[in-house]
Amino acid sequence: MADRIPNLGLARPPEQPASLYRGDVMHARLKPVGHRFTYRVMSLLIDLDRLDEADTMSSLFRINRGALFSFCERDHGPRDGSSLRAHADRLLQRHGVDLPKGRILLLCYPRVLGYVFNPLSVYYCYDEDGRLAGLIYEVRNTFGEMHSYVCPVRPHEISAAGIRQTETKAFYVISSAAGDRQSDWRDPLRSHSTVAQGRATPRAAIQGTGTGASRGRGLSQDRGWPW
After folding, report:
1. Which pTM was predicted?
2. Domain extent listing, the chain
3. Quick check: helix, strand or coil at residue 155?
4. Which of 31, 5, 14, 25 is CA-nearest to residue 224?
5. Which of 22, 43, 101, 158 has the fewest Cβ atoms surrounding its Cβ within 10 A?
6. Nearest to residue 69, comparing CAs of 109, 112, 107?
7. Cα angle at 141 between 137 and 146, to 5 degrees?
């Protein structure tokens, strides 16, 4: 079991440079016609300060170069291949969070045979004592646009269920989904698992919800891959 952070009910992140999370994502449309479907996903949790170490963990996985599975810095942040750690630090500092000795881990989909689409990537930002200090939600739409919601973790957002944060939607994601964007995060990385939920507001002409749940393990040569 992961070490628990005192007084928060949250767990410390895994120690490995990279871990794989296999799980399920559910989408449901509530109006005007009900519709629901679920599919399997594989996500990557990677320490942005230990990319060189992650590059040596498996011959099936590479950093910033071609492989069956890969992680490319240019898929995130400024999308120019520059340091994602520096990018995350800049975003956090603009919101009053300074983590010079903390860890920042990015949860995203890896490239598969060079292809990837990440509708939501999440930066988990820890202070030097291993406490979760902030979350950065990097949201994309199918038009190639991207926006980062930077959310320092506030005491009132923490409960026995984990963390719940709310942000106003800043750009077009789905048709007629006007108003607020709400993301609920429960038990982030507790026992190497994560659960997330996002939903359109009641004001939206199309109402829906999406959830994801997964469990992870360290990336290695012979275990943790989807086969």
Report:
1. 0.80
2. 4-218
3. helix
4. 14
5. 101
6. 112
7. 50
